Amino acid sequence: MCPHRSSCPSVQADTAHVVAAHVPAARVVAAHPEQGWSLLCDGSIVFDDSGVLLPDGSVVAPRRVPAGRLAQAA
Predict the structure, then answer these.
(1) Is the pTM of this model over 0.70?
(2) Which pairing describes strands 59-60 and 28-32: parallel, antiparallel, or unpaired?
(3) Around Cβ 19, how many Cβ atoms within 10 Å?
């Protein structure tokens, strides 16, 4: 499905680790920053909050920082 050289590895939804390693290899086909998402050449949709919707309909939850690790504003 990817038209570029060194095509993307196949999308596998079995673990977030596989997807996290895969997503940087795919290229953006359509970007919609005003809506907070981008379509990748492998059919995945990546959201600004780091969540991913895979072509098979499965979801990779956003990677969130625990509230205790956030810096407090002065």
Answers:
(1) no
(2) unpaired
(3) 18
Residue listed under structure tokens 């969130």: 64
Query: Would you state the structure tokens that stand for residue 44, as one six-digit string?
Result: 């995945």
Let me know how long the chain is. 74
d(CA 11, CA 46): 13
Percent helix, strand, coil in the chain, to 5, is 20, 20, 60
pLDDT band at 64 (very low <50, low <70, confident <90, very high): confident
Q: Which residues contact 38 (CB under 8 A, 6 or more apart)?
A: 28, 30, 31, 32, 45, 46
Condensed to tens digits (0 to 9), the pLDDT of residues 9-34 reads 666 534 444 455 555 678 888 999 99
